[in-house]
Amino acid sequence: MGTDSDEGVDTQEAIMQATYRALCKDGYANLTVQAIADEFDKTKGVIHYHYDTKEALLVAFLEYLLEAFEQNIAVDDQADPDERLLTLIETLLFGPPERGEFDHWELMTALLEVRTEAPYNQEFRRQLTRNYETVEATVVAIVEEGIEDGTFREIDPELVATLLLTCLNGARIYQVTLQRDDVATDTQESLEAVVADWLRRSESADEPS
Amino acid sequence: MGTDSDEGVDTQEAIMQATYRALCKDGYANLTVQAIADEFDKTKGVIHYHYDTKEALLVAFLEYLLEAFEQNIAVDDQADPDERLLTLIETLLFGPPERGEFDHWELMTALLEVRTEAPYNQEFRRQLTRNYETVEATVVAIVEEGIEDGTFREIDPELVATLLLTCLNGARIYQVTLQRDDVATDTQESLEAVVADWLRRSESADEPS
Questions:
Q1: B177 contact residues in A (CB cutoff 8 A)
Q2: Three-state SS across A37-103?
Q3: Confidence grade of residue A27 (pLDDT, cut at 50, 70, 90)
Q4: What is this model's ipTM?
Q5: pLDDT tens for residues B40-59?
Q6: Are residues B152 and B58 in contact, defined by beta-carbon separation less than 8 angstroms?
Q7: CB contact (8 A) between residue B177 and residue A119
Q8: Does B131 touch chain A (CB under 8 A)?
Q9: Contacts of A205 in chain B (CB under 8 A)
Q10: Alpha-carbon distance B108 to B99, whole Å?
Q11: Is A121 part of the contact surface with chain B (CB cutoff 8 Å)?
């Protein structure tokens, strides 16, 4: 199959990057195959060859974002658990460092539009759930490691994961839907305080074991 | 003006309740003046008399939800700060006690659709910001009172408010967009742990003052 060859993979990568740019520019409502084709040097036919529907393209795009996230996180494997958690929080709030601030919030606005379709679209829901559970598992692994090496106190890692994920999701959505530009930075500060005062084992406040 | 008379107020209240039912049933995308008129014993003309546009009606509805929230919160003024905070968390996650569970999540789905319009609609953004800031001020007031009466430790109330609001917003949206029905209850558990372990002054872990 063409999609398994190197060329197919390169083309798919190019389509994903073009989708990314088109989403940031025009939003989800205005995303058309033509708008994506305009963002790279291929025709609409090439996109249709790889993705039958706009839905299939969007599901592939959510998968692409998840893979980018996983690669981004893997780099950081050597750092301490609390540093890794703070880096994860920053990445999930403001995007990976190589992306511009402007594009990140445009992308978040487009993803909110995709998410809003999810109650009516099983494929979106399935892929968003996969993304959620991957990030959740990443947080749980970091917290477990932190408990094991004594960085964090004894705490249910799932509770921490739920807190972080819901908080970051809510913050990203408030940031693009309210007349305030401080929610994301305030949230980073709040979560830093949670990590420092709640998660991190404090010398003076150790619990009796 | 008709809208200031008792009859006008009653009609507006009836329109708001009809809007509530229509939103829960059909979602925001399918919300029409006819669908609202079908939910009560008045004609479309009555609705148009009070609200020129669907946008004006939706802004009034967001205001109506905010007022319902404020009335709901005021009842609880006598309880301890930590109980009031836990009640607030429960109400914001699962709706006020008199609303059915089903309707609550249908409403949350419709409100997500309204919120998704906010980046492109200044009136929605303005009203959603007002709602956010009212809930924020409510949390700040409870935390300040809790610090004063010794229930909570010395903590920046604004940081707590940001954490709670983003977390609750993210949880409500995950609850209606993921293939999981446990995010809201998990979030309640997480925030209860935050209140118990992070906010509440612990006898054994008092900070030096």
A1: 115-116, 118-119, 125, 128
A2: HCCCCCCHHHHHHHCCCHHHHHHHHHHHHHHHHHHHHHCCCCCCHHHHHHHHHHHHHHCCCCCCHHH
A3: confident
A4: 0.89
A5: 888 889 999 999 988 899 99
A6: no
A7: yes
A8: no
A9: 202, 204-205
A10: 12
A11: no
Nearest Cα to Cα of residue A125 among A55, A180, A71: A55
Same domain flag for A25 and A67: no
Q: Are residues B96 and B28 in the same domain?
A: no
B104 vs A167, B20, B68, CA distance in Å?
21, 10, 14
Question: Is pLDDT of A141 > 70?
Answer: yes
Task: State whether residue B185 sits within 8 Å of chain A by CB.
Answer: no
Confirm if B84 and B141 have CB atoms less than 8 A apart: no
Asked whether residue B141 falls in the same domain as residue B179, the answer is yes
* Spatial CB neighbours of A171, under 8 Å, sequence gap ≥ 6: A93, A183, A184, A187, B162, B166, B170
Are the beta carbons of A155 and A202 closer than 8 angstroms?
no
pLDDT at position A101 is: 57
Q: What is the pLDDT of residues B76-106, one digit of tens each?
A: 667 899 999 999 999 999 988 776 656 889 8
The backbone torsions φ and ψ at residue A60, rounded to the nearest 5 degrees and listed phi first, read -60, -35
Of A29 and A84, the structure prediction assigns the larger pLDDT to: A84
Among A51, A68, A91, the domain-final residue is: A51
Range of weakest confidence among A9-18, A63-72, A115-124, A142-151: A63-72
Task: Provide the CATH number for the domain around residue A188.
Answer: 1.10.357.10
Structural domain tally of chain A? Answer: 2
* Residue B89 C-alpha, separation from nearest chain A C-alpha, in angstroms: 13
Could you tell me where the DSSP H helices lie in A75-180?
81-94, 101-117, 122-148, 157-177
